[in-house]
Design a protein that fits this description.
- Helix content is 42%, strand content 15%.
- A hairpin with an 8-residue loop joins strand 1 and strand 2.
- The mean pLDDT is 90.
- GO terms for molecular function: DNA-binding transcription factor activity; transcription cis-regulatory region binding; zinc ion binding.
């Protein structure tokens, strides 16, 4: 949590009570919380905070690269995670929204080199696989 606050300060952003509460919620709400779940948690600390404030702060953290927004295509909306590793991808169930980290990168350096052959300089990439988790696949 303190690392996120340090990054914000280093980039010239103030640490408002709402921003601190969003960061606390990201750390306390378990893996892959939705914006709604974060808002619910923050309102226990700061009852008058708006959902827009939560989403603006999440968007800032995503823009700074210290939080990832994972597009779940689910009923409850996208989920968020603090960026703790250099690089990883996700498996996302289109039925229940379960999200899992993929602990390897299926994109080879050769594939990246081919993509850069036309002069485009790749600085990062993200990949999300959509399908059905074990429980949803066996239920259908």
């Amino acid at each position: 949590m303190e690392q996120l606050i340090r990054v914000l300060r280093d980039k010239g952003f103030k640490i408002t009570p709402q921003r601190r509460a969003v960061i606390t919620a990201l750390a306390k709400c378990g893996k892959f919380p939705t914006a709604q779940r974060i808002w619910d948690y923050v309102r226990t600390i700061t009852p008058d905070v708006s959902f827009d404030t939560i989403y603006r702060n999440l968007s800032l953290l995503v823009e700074l690269g210290i939080v990832s927004e994972i597009h779940t295509k689910g009923r409850e909306g996208n989920v968020f995670e603090i960026v703790e590793t250099d690089h990883h991808h996700h498996l996302i169930c289109v039925s229940c929204g379960t999200t899992q980290c993929l602990d390897f990168c299926p994109v080879s350096h050769g594939d990246l080199a081919k993509a850069e052959a036309g002069g485009f300089k790749i600085t990062s990439h993200s990949l999300e696989f959509y399908g059905y988790c074990r429980e949803c696949a066996s239920a259908g």
